[in-house]
Each structure stands twice: as structure tokens, then as C-alpha cells.
What does this fold into?
Amino acid sequence: MTKHFEVEQRDGKARLGKLSLSRTLKTPCIINTEDIGDTEKLPIIDAGSIWKQGQHVFDNQYLNQLRQKVGENNLIILPHQNYPYNVPDEAVLDTTGNYDIETSGATGSVFHPGKKTKNSDLYIMEGGGGLENNARQFFNALKDLKEKIPHDTAVYVPNIALPENLAMLIYIGADVFDYTRATLSAYNDIYLTSSGKFYLYNITELPCRCDACASVTVDDIKSMDAENRGIILEKHNKNTLDSELSLVREKMRKGYLREYVEGQCRSQPWLTALLRIADFDQCYLEEQFPTTRTVQLTANTSESLNRPEITRFAERVQNRYTPPKKDILLLLPCSARKPYSTSNSHQKFIDTLGKYRKYVHELVLTSPLGIVPRELELTYPAAHYDIAVTGHWDADEVEWVTDCLVNYLSKNKYSYVIAHIDGAYKKVCDLAARKLGIEIIYTCENDVTSKESLEVLKDTIKNLSYERTQPKPMSKHNLMRAIADYQFGKGAGNILVPDDAVIKAPYPKHQVYLNKEQIATLVPHHGTLSLTVRGAELLIPHDNYVVKIGSFVPKGSILAPGILEADISIRPGDEVLISGENAIGVGRALMSGREMEKSTRGIAITLRHVKKT
Amino acid sequence: MPLNQIISEIRNRQRIKPSAPDVPTAVWTGYDNHKGKRTDTLTIIFKTSGCWWGNQGGCSMCGYVYDSSQEPPGYKDLKSQFQKAMEKASSLEEFMVKIYTSGSFLDENEVSTDALKHILQALNQDKRVLKVVAETRPEFVTDDTIVKCRNLLKDTEFEIAIGLETSSDIIRRDSINKGFKFSDFVKAAQIAEENDVTTKAYLLLKPLFITEGTAVDDMIQSIDDIAPYANNISINLCNVQKGTFVEWMWQKGQYRPPWLYSIVDVLKKSKQKHPETIITSDPVGAGSKRGPHNCYKCDQDIANAIRRFSITQNTNDLDFKEQTCGCFQLWKKVVKLDDCTYGAFIVDRMMQ
It folds into this structure.
């Protein structure tokens, strides 16, 4: 159990936290390893390496004496016998350092894969820096480490941090770094920048105005002796690392780290590979990725297609969403303005369809989201993304959107599929039609908003709806049900929004009432539902997104230790249902379900409503 | 022994060139310090069936096991090897003979009693031979073997050389996989002393998994520990030999041979503490990727200084213009920082 590390804010796997020691270290942070052992400068002491002969007998007595000397609030790195990451397992099975000694107070321990982990506040990824340039191994090593240790402990990756890789390493979950590489680079005449390294003698001007660089020219530095050159380069390299760290922390506070990393990882192939490998992993990043963000999702790179939010949206449309019972599908192009229905083009489509609109089910084709059912156009990230528009889709985008459409149409059957689209969208429809062996009716020749095209669209729908029974006008119910299913899983919509529910208030601020009691409200900003206590009561038996708490009545927020059980599908930002012996309520998750169960510190849920039972 | 299996697997993958059993692995002449004087030396590396410990897997840095013969050389073969070797000394007036087998000269399974008798008798009869040094593992240093050698060599000076590598049992076991303890070395040295045989110890600077700073400290500590038993200490600088565990880690980018500044540091500090002990080092492979190196620019100058010191034992020889090469500052940082890398040892790639 950790008493010394607490996560205060998350942005996906990245965390802003603090190590509360004799001096508080705000994480992510960079330490100067030369200061280890000097508690005036750094509240960290190394108990010692077992490779160093004869210095200490590493037993409990030694450790307890050290603890007494430095106090509970300086972090002691437990005795270690270090190996590089790639050492074969047999080499470490039966070594001298295989013994257990522990101590009270703040501790750090070196994590070797396969060896028993000791209880600590900080875990050091053994040999971490040696895996630079090997994205797959690095990712697997970090993932393995993070799975074996409690969520609310800090991870230190030694001898790796450079301004170019810091953002990526933080993004995939590391908290503590050191200046070692910055110093080594400096004394080897390497000038670091966040976009890569320069050999001092190959640059003609200094691309930096930090206090080390501001008062000198590159020629001044070149003409210094090795010692002074090293000192000034070290100062610059450390400054650059520091300012990159501040930038990354600021990006995290804003929830923008993903966007930053997608660009920053271009500085080195292994960093781009690391992002892709992390995205290929189905769970690692997704588990801690928020379901809603208050900021726009900027999809500027090919990796944006694989963002956890994008793949999650597609997965939920495929598995959670149930379309209303209509047998004419209308495929529409996306629009720059969100939600789509407020855009000029969609206004025109809607006006054109007029009274025939109720016969069709509308599905919007878009990159990078794939397909967006009209009912979910408000829901994050459907109304919250922006993309570089060129009119051209690359092969990956075409394939992705086609796959989404094919999957959707394999599951949901329609008598007619109408496509009011042009350009790249048409390519997608053609590919999907060919794959499924179905016919798609195209209603526009060139411009989707041209008079002729809209005319064709109207006539086509009009002809098809002729002699059809008129569907019930339930569009508001369908909207609320779709969002409920998307948010809480299939079936939640029918529980929260039965046919006899009354939808009050104008779009998009709908409220659901049942027997004159409010159940849920649509929050337009995120396109999600927030529930009342009554809503929670109805939904708890559905058994998704439920958090079981101990026998207390929570106020304001719920801390992790108060949680008995939490649904593992809970993600930060989710609306969760709180169920306890003495209370029932709803709130917003700040951590994933697994973290809620495993953490010993930190706020897990901010409460919205609670009722004593 | 923890590492034998891993090392055996690596050894099994290594292709070995067949070689004639009646030719020594190598013979060369050189110089060494003998009683404070620069003296000619003849070094003979006999080809034998090989080190028994090496054949179990053996030491993590040792590539000499591949020098052994597939067909165990018999009495006649060794006799012929010896004869060929002595031809190389034909022009020398006075010299010291250093005998190696890539294993243990005193192991009967490598060098039979008959062959040992023939060689030592011949060396004793050759009046040009001032001193004989023979390398062996400590388990073969017994009253039996030492008395036998002493009797054969009569009044010729005799020294046994033991690859102790370090006085740290932890490093010798978990990193080097040497298969014996410091106490075994001490026992061997005592048996030798009782029979008027001196002991030379080989140490190893920077074996696998040991950081630059720890490696330096380990050598200084080791010299302190063994000075009472060995009046002659030679420090080998770990290099990356083919078909070794060290090579395996090095290829993965997780081992770097020692800096030459490190051995200079060890020699200076230890010589000052132990002025009576001969402390030498032959910087084999200095300035190459697989050998000990600094920045590749200053390596040859420093290697020459180390060789000079090894003959003269004068630390002034180590006061070369070290501050003029910029990499000296880098090495100082490496020594400090490498101790806190927690397995992410500093290798050259990280500084580029």
C-alpha cells in the first residue's frame, strides 16, 4: 500500500501526481541521480548495489538503521543487484540478491520481470534505458511492469529521458526520469532539442534562448575547452528537458497530450513505432482513456485513426448500438460543422427530406470515426473532432470507413440503402456494396447540395416510402435510447427510455421523465446522459457501470479505498452508478474501474446525486 | 552454478576451427618486469584438451576455450609443442617463461605428469631461464603438485598465476561464473608460499553487469585484499571475445568494455597504496570496439602509457596529457552516473 504517491489528474495513461516525501516531488519529474543520497537536494537514498562488495551486509538491521537515520519521509531504494533488460532468466534465478528485506516508510524497488515485487511507492524499470530504439520490447516491458504493480505507484525509467522522447514516455505511463542522458550528451558535444540531437560542431546557430544559450554564440561554445563546453551544454540540455517537461504537463492539464504526442513522436522512428504499438494493443491505453473530453479531438495524422477514442466509438456503434426499426438506410457525408445536423449541408438534406424523413435511418460516413448514426452525432467524439480536409482520402482511411460500414451492414439489415454522397465516400460505398453483394442507390451526381442532387434524393425516398406504414414519431426516444445504449451497454436504452417515457425540453437538452419523475438529462456538451438517483435505481439491476461501496453515505466524492467492487468497463469520465448498503447514487468516474479496485489513494468518483437508503 | 547453462548454450552455437595437436596455440616473445628490471619473456600457450571448467560452460568473458584441441594432445604432442615454442627463444640471452594452456597447466587431464616433467625439467636445465610462471586454477594447487613442480625446477624461480578476477565472491559467482571462491585462492597462495613458490593474480576490470564506477572500486578493493598473498598482480581489461556471454550481451547493446581512464585510475591509486606490489596491465585490444577504449582518438597514447607503467612501475608514466582529450570529462561523468542507471548501463550509443 502506498502512502507517498498520489495521482491527481490523468490524461489517458499519463498522470499528474505527487510523491509526498520530505520534499514533494510533482510528477512527472526528472531527477538528478548524482543527488541520490543527499537528502538536502533530493529526498531519495539508495540503500546500495549488491554488486558492490563488502560495503554493507544487506539485512533488515542495516535497512532499519538506514531508515532511522533518514526518517520515514525520505524514499529508500531497496538493495538491488541490477541486470540489463535482456539478461536471460536463468542468469538471475539463483543470484546473491534474491532475498527479501523490506522497511517501513517510503521505498523504491527495482523491478525485474519475473521476480517477486516488493511493496513500494516507486518502481524502477530495470534496464529501461537500454531498450531505447526497441519499441516493441520497451512497450512490452513497461506494460508488464505496470500490470504487476499497484496503479497508484510511480514508475521510474532510468537513463532514457531526452527532450525528443519525454512526451511519448509520459504518454505511455512513466512518471519519473533522470538527467543522465542530458549530461552524457553534453559531455559528448551533443546539443539536444525536442526535435532531435545536433552535434555541436555541425550547427551554425543555437536554436534556443534558454539562459545557457542566450548570452553566447555557437562559436563561443565551440571554442571553449572540454570542461567549460560540457558545463554549458549540460545546462542547455537540462533546460531543454525541463521546458519539454513543463510543456507536456501543460498538455496533460488540458487533455491534449495525445495530439501532441502524435506530432512529437516523429522525431525518432522508434517513438512513432512506440505509439503505433501502444495503439495496436487493445487494452493498454484504452483502459485509462477518458470517454469524454472537454476539448476538441484533432485528427491530423494517420495514427489518429487508431486513437483509443476512435476505435472505442467504432466498437460501441458495432456492439452496443441498436438502430431504430426502419428499413431504408440513408448514408450521408460528414460536415465540418458539428453536430452534423447543424451544418448547412445537413440542414439542406433535412429540409429536402421533409415529411419523408421519418421513413429513413440516417448514417453519416466520416473519417476518422467511420460511421456515425444520426442519434449519436452529439456524443463524444462525434461532435468534437476536427480533421485536415483535402477532399482526398488515403487508402487507410478508405479501408477503415469501409470496414465500419461493412460490419454495420452485416449486422443490421435494410431493404434499401441510399447513398447521398460523392467523391471518396462513393468509393467506400462501392467497396462495401461489392463486399456484401448488395445494391446501393446513389442519389447524387456531383455536388451533394446541388438542386438536382437534392431533387433526386427527395424523389428516391418519396418513391420508396410510398405505401409503407407510417412509423411512430419516436425520434426523441430513439435518440435518448441510442445514447443510453452507447453509454451503458445494450438494453440500457429500453430501461431508461421505455415507450411510455416523456421527453421534455427542446433538443438538445432533452430530459427523460417516467411517471412524472425525472430519470435522465442529455448533456449536450458531451452528448451523454446524466442520471438522477431514480435513473440509477432503474439501471443498477442492468449491472453495468456499477460501483459497490462500503456501508457509508458518501458526500462530494468517493475515495478509492471506499470502493469494494467496480465494473472493469468503467473509464475515466464515465457516468457511474453507486450502490451501497446505505446509499445509492450517481457520479462521474475519475479513474478506470480496475484502478478504483486496486488503488489505495485518490479520488475515484465525484458524486452528482446521492440518497440514503 | 547459475550461468553454466546459458554459457554452454552460447558455446554450443560457436563454430570451432580444427587445428593440429602438435602445434602450440600461440607463442610470442615480449618484455616484463622482473625484480624491477625489464626482462625478455617467452609466452607459450599450450594446446590441451582445454579448461575443465570452461568445458562445463565456464566464465562469462572467456573465449579461450575455443583454443583447445578436439583430440586431446598426448605426451608426444605436448613435447613437440614445447620444442616448437622454445625455438622462438633461440636468440634470447636471459628470459622468463610464461606458460598458459587456456586452462590449468597443473591439471593432469590437460598436461600429463610425464609432459609436465619433460617441460619443467627442460626449463630448469636451460640456464637462460630466469623464472617460470604457469597459470592454473586454484583447485590444482595442492601440496602434491607444488612440491612436484618445485622439485623439477629446483632453484629456478617459479610462480603460479591464478585468474582470481576479483576478491568479490558475489561478482565472481553471479557475473563471471568462475566456479571458485576467494578462500580457494588464498589457500592456493599459502600452499605456494610454503614451497617457495610465488603467486601472481589476474584480475578482471569490468565484468558483465558491473558499472564503470563499481568496476574501478572493485579493482582497488581487490588489490587491497590480495596484496598480502600476491606480489604480482595483473589486471586484464575485459574485452569482448567471440562466443562468450559477454559478447551476447554486447551484441544486444547492453555491455561496454571498460574505459582506459578507468584502468589508469586503478593503477595510480593502487600503486600508491601498495608500492611493493607489482601491478601491471596489458591493454589487449585497446582502442577497438570490442576492447577497452575511450573515444578512439586518445586510446593508443593511453594504452602505451599503461604498457610503459607496467614495465617501470613508475606512476609518472601514467601522467600523460589526459586533460587534453575532451573525453576525460565525459569519463568522469560516466563513472558518477553509471552507478545509478539501474541496469540501463551506459554504452557508447547513449552518448551519441
